[in-house]
Specification:
Strand order of the largest sheet: 2-1-5-4-3
CATH class of the largest domain: Alpha Beta
Oligomer: single chain
Number of helices: 10
Distance between the termini: 60 Å
């Protein structure tokens, strides 16, 4: 389970979100703390300043009446802050108190010149013998416009942190709520991603087991997963078609091999057992054996040629070829079949080009096209062979009056092992197409259902192989 993409992807999302939440919260806490402390510090100084102003007035009134000010502890209970006093000079005290009612600080805790100048001073200090850092506000105490000391109101800095903590506690619920929302969103998104991916994984397992009929449900949208789903279905369909072609090829080749082998075996056994006694019958049996052996040789040669073309291990010769003579050779090879079946067999030559190419392979392409034409042309039909040179190309066309080829089958007929009627090896047109490409040309098809077909080998006239 923990190795499953269904678990790891949401976990990764959540971990990334939590990390991002911690980072963003830390940044927010740092920024808000700095801002809050700055704000609270300013507020603290303002409060201390107001309190110091009131206590300074009390000190000034008592000095005018030559009486002691209220004890520091009473003032501290009333204000909630610590109260200190700094005399102008050591030994100079305008209050007639036997025992001072206030805590005295040395002048060096602040810039006393500012006090003498009548200014309020905001500062931080640690009282003598103390350990806690204080924020303080000092105000001058005057008698008849003469400064004789300073009153200090102070508050521990730790109270700033205590005042800031509520801000942090407010951030925590927002942080956890954000994690919950983001986690739910990450889980939902990961489910949307992993569901089609897991379906693809299951389908891939089926394909690996040889079950090519599997189909992945369509994924809505136009993202990468949707594209992958479409391509996977296309791949599965192609594999299913290829598997069907392979089975058909094995059955067809087995049949094509068995037929001549059966004939050869029958005639050989008859010859060995002495069943065939007269010379004419013996010659007939030997001719049948020769023809069937040639048939086997052509079948094996077709399979080997296709394998060489597929692996790009096919070598072409370079020689000057008189294409008119080549066309005549291909034409004459089918003359007897045309006569026997009553087919109108014609030849047309409007150019006599000489091309540097592999003549045997060009002849093989033409022969395969003619063999296909005669196979599909009914007795009494028409087959034509034409040679022409047009716009820098050499065109060798084979016309037939067969049934034509439907639109949906026009791409399939050039695939290996595919046959329209399920008979034959389905290699003739496939080899012709591959050889044409190897020769630097192509095969063009013009066809219409019910009106025959025209296969045209197009070779470049000015570019030798």
């Amino acid at each position: 389970m923990f190795r499953s993409l269904r678990f790891r992807l949401p976990a990764l999302f959540l971990a990334a979100i939590v990390l991002a939440g911690f980072v963003s919260t830390a940044v927010a806490v740092s920024v808000s703390r700095s801002y809050a402390q700055s704000t609270l510090r300013k507020q603290t100084f303002n409060q201390l300043g107001r309190e110091a102003k009131g206590i300074t007035q009390i000190y000034a009134d008592r000095s005018n009446r030559l009486s002691c000010p209220p004890p520091s502890r009473e003032l501290e209970r009333a204000s909630g802050d610590q109260v200190f006093y700094i005399p102008r000079a050591k030994g100079i005290d305008v209050f007639p108190c036997a025992t001072p009612a206030y805590t005295v600080l040395p002048r060096n805790v602040l810039d006393f010149n500012k006090i003498l100048a009548g200014r309020t001073v905001e500062f931080q200090f640690t009282p003598p013998g103390g350990t806690v850092r204080l924020l303080g506000v000092a105000r001058p105490v005057k008698l008849s416009s003469q400064t004789f000391g300073a009153v200090i109101l102070a508050r521990p800095r730790t109270r700033l942190n205590q005042s800031w903590l509520p801000y942090a506690w407010r951030l925590l619920p927002a942080f956890f709520a954000g994690i919950l929302v983001a986690g739910a969103l990450g889980w939902y998104l990961s489910r949307r991603i992993t569901k089609p991916v897991l379906a693809l994984s299951d389908a891939a397992d089926e394909v690996a087991a040889g079950h090519y009929g599997v189909a992945v449900p369509a994924v809505p949208g136009r993202d990468e997963i949707s594209h992958l789903s479409e391509r996977f279905n296309e791949m599965a369909a192609e594999l299913q078609a290829a598997d069907a072609l392979e089975r058909n090829f094995l059955m067809t080749v087995s049949h094509e091999l068995r037929t001549p082998l059966t004939a050869i075996r029958g005639h050989v056994e008859a010859l060995l057992e002495g069943v065939v006694e007269d010379e004419e019958a013996r010659s007939y049996s030997l001719e049948v054996i020769r023809l069937e052996a040639g048939r086997l040789e052509r079948l094996v040669g077709d399979v080997l040629d296709l394998a060489k073309l597929d692996t790009h291990r096919f070598a072409l010769l370079r020689e000057e070829v008189d294409l008119e003579r080549l066309v005549d050779r291909a034409y004459s090879a089918f003359g007897e079949e045309a006569r026997r079946r009553g087919i109108d067999y014609s030849r047309s030559v409007t150019a006599t080009p000489v091309l540097e190419t592999d003549g045997d392979r060009v002849l093989q392409v033409i022969s395969n096209l003619l063999a296909n034409a005669f196979r599909w042309t009914p007795d009494g039909g028409h087959v034509g062979l034409a040679l022409a040179q047009v716009d820098g190309t050499i065109r060798i066309a084979v016309d037939d009056s067969g049934p034509g080829i439907p639109q949906e089958e026009q791409d399939r007929i050039f695939r290996p092992f595919w046959s329209r009627d399920g008979h034959g090896t389905g290699l003739g047109l496939a080899i012709a197409s591959e050889l044409a490409a190897a020769l630097g040309g192509e095969i063009e098809l013009q066809t219409e259902a019910g009106k025959g077909s025209r296969f045209e080998l197009v070779l470049p006239a000015n570019r030798p192989v």
